Amino acid sequence: MNRKRLVRFFGASLIAAGIAVAAVSGLKWKNGLEAVKPLSVEIERQTGAAPMQIQSSLYPKQPKIGEQIGELIIPKLNMSLAIYHGTDENELEKGVGHYAGSVLPGEADNCVLSGHRDTVFRRLGEVGQGDILIVRTSAGTFTYKVRKVRIVDADDRTVIVPKPKATLTVSTCYPFRYVGPAPQRYVLVANLINDRS
Description:
Sortase, Sortase_dom-sf, eight-stranded mixed β-barrel, hydrolase, alpha+beta, 8 strands, single chain
């Protein structure tokens, strides 16, 4: 009799623990989704202004997915890489991708660029804190200084959240020599230090 009660108690405990883990995971997932809302959605929530009414003074026209929007210059590596609007495989095969949910280079907030570790960003690990990144677009030339290097999990969405000032976030898969889908991301976080429009 005691054995049956013990088995039932143990079974009920496992079910309760499973429900608790699912609830916590669900909350983390929900919070993660909220963290990646585009800034325009947050502005709309706070001000009541529709995102379409907010236009950039730097870029009067939004680029189309697949369109080249500029170039990323990495002086330390003596490299100049084309930047394409979008981060699908089509854009990443051609060069560096600009995450369409982020602002364009030079704008206040977080401009997110990504590239493959085995093509355009093969040597990105050589770039670190204090190094310079330059972005040239139709709106001007924007110089950023790397403030921080982060290594995060592949599913970490904090790299695309809004920032209080003009920031350039550059990411690629990590470790660089990993075979197969890499479990982490190498992330450079850089602040705008000057612009020549």
